[in-house]
Amino acid sequence: FASLSDRDLRKESLAIRYRANSGEALDHLLPEAFALVREAGRRFVSMRHYDVQILGGIALHEGCIAEMQTGEGKTLTATLPLYLASLTGAGAHLATSNDYLAGRDAELMKPLFEGLGLSVGVVQSHTPRPQRQTAYRADVTYSTAKELGFDFLRDRLLLRRVKEGQALVLDALANDDESPSESQPVQRQLNYIIVDEADSILIDEARTPLIVSSLPGGSETAMEVLYSFSAAVAERFEETTHFEFKHKPRSVTLNEDGRKLLRSLSFPDELNTFGMIDIYEQVERAILVAREYQKDRHYVVRNDEIVIVDEFTGRLAEGRKWRAGIHQAIEAREGVPVSVDTGDAAKVTIQDFFLRYNRLAGMTGTAATSALELYKIYNTSVAVIPTHKPPNRSRLPDQVFGNSEAKWDAIVRQIAKLHVEGRPVLVGTRSIDKSEYLSEKLNEANVAHLVLNARHTADENGIIAKAGEENRVTVATNMAGRGTDI
Length: 486
What we know:
Layout: H1 6-21, H2 26-44, H3 51-61, E1 65-67, H4 74-86, E2 92-96, H5 99-115, E3 120-122, H6 129-137, E4 140-144, H7 145-163, H8 169-174, E5 192-196, H9 198-204, E6 209-214, H10 220-233, E7 243-246, E8 251-254, H11 256-264, H12 276-292, E9 299-302, E10 305-308, H13 326-334, E11 343-349, H14 350-354, E12 359-364, H15 371-378, E13 382-384, H16 404-420, E14 425-428, H17 432-444, E15 450-452, H18 460-466, E16 473-476
Parallel strand pairs: 1-12, 1-13, 2-4, 2-5, 3-4, 5-12, 14-16, 15-16
Antiparallel strand pairs: 6-11, 7-8, 9-10
Helix pairs in contact: 1-2, 2-4, 2-5, 3-4, 4-5, 10-12, 10-13, 12-13
């Protein structure tokens, strides 16, 4: 293929596509398809797949979780099985852990796919519906696990309404293939998917429910008063004296003394519509929130809104809310407008959603430890792919300190030492508040640095692009731990 012109390379791709649509097995087409993608990579994006990346591509086509070390080029590896799976015309999806990566990967690999005559789509959280329909009709679609799942749920609700006769009949009659309508699902069949950072998405977030909400009836004002009242009195209750706390599942239960104390308080008139059981439950929630949910760790307050911090990615989870009144209890505690509690119109867990695909594969740097679990739940084997060159990383011994302050001082001293030597430093912290605390200490030590956390995402690309430069210090939460090419 290396000797062909760009036009002839594209013709070869169309020929292979025709054979796939004629029923020839993808396993049989694999050598030619991968050779085409390798040549297209060299020609259109100046990246030729290494032999180990070809191995990774074969593992992904076979439906394995490919364990590839950081920096081994998972983005380029994924182009091989994505191309092969898309040949049948049923589409191929790649699920990343965040919008930034979905957009970046699609942009990077678009010239490769287009050089072989394939279309590429990308779905991010702010993508409007008509563009979503177009993106899902593309041969290869990049998105996040959550967006794919939510679009699946919205399609199910739409089809349910259509079945019940609530669809726009005229719209359906006027519809043609070129202009997807509001009464048409955005997704096609769930054919083939590669899950990037598979251990995080398929194991850590497996039981996370994706929920499309429906607004319930009832008195909003009375509910707001109940949330505010509960938040105001939560501090009066003491553990063991007034309530019992259980770690698994995290729950608070008022005991007899706690209920007696609550009944002795004066209630606003609006609470007359509620039974005591409802008031007990909401006060228990308010106590749980005060005890377990920390500002700048579990959530941030932005523009009079509570925005969840995703514990797996370190990013702000725009549009997501905690369930069972927890979100409203936090709003009341922080003194922001309390949103109306919502019911569930449709929901699916991440695990159940991915099991609906005809074929599932994944990539990650750390899968071997979860191999048994991945096999049990998803029936996928883990294939450990060797590195392109022998690894040369050395792990330094752990250091233990008597208290937190001594630890932070030692971290600042170490950063300052490496900074003077001109070495770029990436510091990982557990939460937003810890990253900002370290930032303050570095300012005191006159060490120039940049902070990457859910509060500072506007220049994320710029911060990442500069993170490997000489003398550069970057303090980050686990936002930098997934797909950040330092």
